[in-house]
Specification:
It is a single chain. The chain has 195 residues and is mainly β. The protein contains one helix and 25 strands. It has one helix at residues 16-27, and strands at 5-6, 31-32, 37-39, 44-46, 51-52, 57-60, 63-64, 67-68, 72-75, 80-81, 86-89, 92-95, 100-101, 106-108, 110-112, 127-129, 132-134, 139-140, 145-146, 151-152, 157-158, 163-164, 172-175, 180-186, 191-194. The chain has a nine-stranded mixed beta sheet with strand order 2-5-10-13-18-21-23-24-25, covered by helices on one side.
Length: 195
Amino acid sequence: METIIFRCLCHINKNRTLRRFLKKARQDGCFISKKSFLFNPLCIHLGLRVAIEDFSSLRCYIQTAGGSYSPNIFIGHDSVVGEGTRIYSAGDLSIGANVIIAANCFIINYNHGFDLNTKIRFGDQPLQVKPVKIGNNCWIGTKAVILPGVQIGDNCVIGACSLVSKSIPANSVVAGNPAALIKRWDPSTKSWVHS
């Protein structure tokens, strides 16, 4: 698979594959800012009416750090990737429908290897990839960070500046560094249960 870098819509005439990607996105009612950055867009799968705002960066790494990878970024219908948000993938990274990702968030599904038994520097060691999944109808607050291996259930709120390093059950509100459960919706009582 070839590496394609998309910097701004004014360059689309130079690449037939990229033109097809952007044409389909427009037909599906998507908005992709001219100031966004897509790296290997053939690995980026957008639902209907997805918005990718200014200065956002979606990167799929096929070959890097001494290895080959199978990256995919899936973004569900009616979701928004806020201004300045970074989403980096070397494996499966799934964002559900009706998800709002606020400005300057960071979502990643890999980490560099850090084997001290080798003379290979950290940046050249194979990546350690763990899938990330964000459920439907979630709100990710400004400057939140979501790390590899995290699964976030449906209907969750992640507070601003939170560091999410562990999975979050559905219907939860979390915040902090590291993110901790603040409250959870109990469907049987139809009320919030505070932690």
